[in-house]
From TrEMBL:
InterPro entries: Aldolase_TIM, Lys_aminomutase/Glu_NH3_mut, rSAM, rSAM_sf. The keyword Iron applies. It comes from the Bacteria. It comes from Oceanospirillum sediminis. GO terms for molecular function: 4 iron, 4 sulfur cluster binding; catalytic activity; metal ion binding. Belongs to the radical SAM superfamily. KamA family. Keywords: 4Fe-4S, Iron, Iron-sulfur, Metal-binding, Pyridoxal phosphate, S-adenosyl-L-methionine. This is Lysine 2,3-aminomutase.
Length: 443
C-alpha cells in the first residue's frame, strides 16, 4: 500500500460511524442471535459454566471474528464462549444440580466452592508481590521483578470481551476480595518515587484500554515529569486490538488517545503496547489493520504475547502464520506463554514437551525477524521459566530450562535441568534431573 492509499482507507473507515459497543454477559446468552441456531442443550451447558467463570463478549467479536460455520471448534468461539469441558465433570454436575433447585443461596455457595477449587490466585499473586508505602500495603500494584512494576488502575479492571482461559479470571467474577485495583495514581507515584531501580511501568488489568483517554491520561501524565526520569518505558497490556480495534480509530476519544501516546513519546519515554493475540484470525479485519497503523504512527512499539492453548492454537502452522503476519504489520513477537495453573487449566493445558515442539516447529518456518518470541514460558512463583528444549545427557532424557525472569535476579539465564516427563504441564510437576534432590532455586 502507498501512503496515499493508507490515508484514503483511513478516511473511509473514519467516515463510517463506530458501531455501538454492544456486550453480552451470562444473563444475555439467549440474546446472541447466532447462538439461536445451535442446539438448546449447548446453551444450557454454557449457562452452567458461566455461573463459575466470567463471560462477556461483544458484537464485533461475534460478527467479525467468530466463524459460525465452524462452531463449536472455531478457535475464536473457544476463546470467548464457555464450553462444558471448561469445568471438570464433578464441578459441572454440582453447579447444574444447584442451579436446578432454583435456590439462590445454594447456587451461590456451590459457585464459591468451585471457584475456590480452581486456584484463583496462581503464583502467590495476592500475598507475594504486593509492595508497601510507609509500611502500608498498596493495592493495585505488583512488584516482582526489580525493573518492572505492574499497575492495575481501578477503572481498567474489565475487558471488551473476556478470554475463557484468562489467568486473571478471579478479578472479574464480582467477588471484591479477589480483586486487585488501585484507587488512584497517587500511591503509584509515591511508590515509584521511592524506587529508583524501576525502569518500566506496565499498566495492566483487565484491559486499560477500556478506560476513557481522560482517565488514562490522569495516570500517565504525572509520570512524564522530571522526578520520574528513571521510568524509561511505559507498557500497556491490552487485547483491545483484537476485541475492539475501534478504540484506536473511531471511538469518540480515539484521536485523543493517539495524542496521548505521542505525548508520552515526546517526553522521551518508550511506549510499548503489549498486544495480546492468540490466533492470526484476530488480525484479519480492516479495522484491526487501521488500528495497528495508527498506534505505530504515534511512535509506539507494538509487541505481541499470548499463551499456547489446547482447543485454540496448538498448531505450529498457526503460530508461524501469526508471527509472520505480526512482523509484516510491524508488531514484534515477544512471548509464548504456557497456560497457567488456574481456572479452566485442565481444558486448555498442553504438555510442556508438546508446547516446546510447537514452538520449535513454528520457529523453523519463519525468518529471524519473526524469531523474537521467547518461550514457551511459565509465569510461576519463582519466576518466568522457559523450556529451552529436550535433550539427552549421559543417557538421561531431560528438559533444559532457564529463568527469563527470577524472583531472585541472580537466577536469570542459568540453565537447569529436570527429568523428562511427557505429561508434565507446569513447573510443579517437574523433578530435578541427575538424581539431585532440589532445584537450585529451592531453599
Ligand atoms: C512478565 C512479568 C513482568 C514483565 O517481564 P518482562 O520479561 O520484562 O516482560 C513483570 N512482572 C510480572 C509479575 C510478570 O509476570
Amino acid at each position: 500500500m502507498t501512503v496515499q492509499e493508507i490515508i484514503n482507507t483511513e478516511q473511509i473507515v473514519k467516515e463510517q460511524p463506530t458501531p455501538k459497543f454492544k456486550v453480552y454477559t451470562a444473563r444475555q446468552l439467549d440474546k446472541v442471535e447466532q447462538l439461536k441456531s445451535l442446539p438448546e442443550a449447548l446453551r444450557a451447558e454454557m449457562e452452567v459454566v458461566a455461573e463459575v467463570l466470567p463471560f462477556r463478549v461483544n458484537q464485533y467479536v461475534i460478527d467479525e471474528l467468530i466463524d459460525w460455520n465452524n462452531v463449536v471448534e472455531d478457535p475464536l468461539f473457544q476463546l470467548t464462549f464457555p464450553q462444558r469441558g471448561m469445568l471438570k465433570e464433578e464441578h459441572f454436575k454440582k453447579i447444574k444440580l444447584a442451579k436446578e433447585t432454583g435456590e439462590k443461596e445454594l447456587l451461590k455457595q456451590a459457585v464459591a466452592e468451585v471457584r475456590e477449587a480452581l486456584n484463583p490466585h496462581p503464583a502467590g499473586q495476592l500475598e507475594q508481590n504486593i509492595p508497601r508505602v510507609n509500611g502500608e500495603p498498596v493495592q493495585g500494584i505488583q512488584h516482582k521483578y526489580s525493573e518492572t512494576v505492574l499497575f492495575f488502575p481501578s477503572s481498567g479492571q474489565v475487558c471488551h470481551s473476556y478470554c475463557t482461559f484468562c489467568f486473571r479470571w478471579a478479578q472479574f467474577v464480582g467477588d471484591s476480595s479477589l480483586k486487585m485495583a488501585a484507587k488512584e495514581s497517587g500511591q503509584l507515584q509515591d511508590y515509584l518515587r521511592e524506587h529508583r531501580e524501576v525502569t518500566d511501568v506496565l499498566i495492566t488489568g483487565g484491559d486499560p484500554m477500556v478506560m476513557k483517554t481522560k482517565n488514562l491520561r490522569a495516570y500517565l501524565e504525572p509520570l512524564l515529569s522530571p522526578e520520574f526520569d528513571h521510568i524509561r518505558t511505559i507498557r500497556i497490556g491490552s487485547k483491545a486490538l483484537s476485541f475492539w480495534p475501534y478504540r484506536f480509530v473511531s471511538d469518540a476519544d480515539a484521536d485523543d488517545l493517539m495524542a496521548l501516546f505521542e505525548e508520552v513519546i515526546a517526553a522521551g519515554k518508550t511506549l510499548a503496547f503489549m498486544a495480546h493475540y492468540n490466533h492470526w484470525r484476530e488480525m484479519e479485519t480492516d479495522i484491526h489493520r487501521q488500528a495497528v497503523k495508527r498506534i505505530r504512527a504515534t511512535g509506539a512499539q507494538i509487541r505481541s504475547q499470548g499463551p499456547l492453548l489446547n482447543h485454540i492454537n496448538t498448531s505450529a502452522d498457526d503460530w508461524a502464520k501469526m508471527w509472520q503476519t505480526q512482523v509484516e504489520m510491524g508488531i514484534q513477537p515477544y512471548y509464548m506463554f504456557v497456560e497457567r495453573d488456574t481456572g479452566a487449566q485442565h481444558y486448555f493445558e498442553v504438555p510442556l514437551a508438546q508446547a516446546w515442539a510447537t514452538y520449535r516447529n513454528a520457529m523453523k518456518q519463519v525468518s529471524g525477524i519473526a524469531r523474537t518470541a521467547r518461550g514457551p514460558s511459565m509465569s510461576a512463583t519463582p519466576g518466568k521459566v522457559e523450556i529451552q528444549g529436550v535433550a539427552e545427557i549421559n543417557g538421561e532424557k531431560v528438559f533444559v530450562l532457564r529463568f527469563i525472569q527470577g524472583r531472585n535476579p541472580d537466577w536469570v539465564q542459568r540453565p537447569f535441568f529436570a527429568q523428562y516427563d511427557e505429561n508434565a504441564t507446569w513447573l510443579n510437576h517437574l523433578k530435578p534431573a541427575f538424581g539431585e534432590e532440589k532445584f537450585f532455586f529451592e531453599e
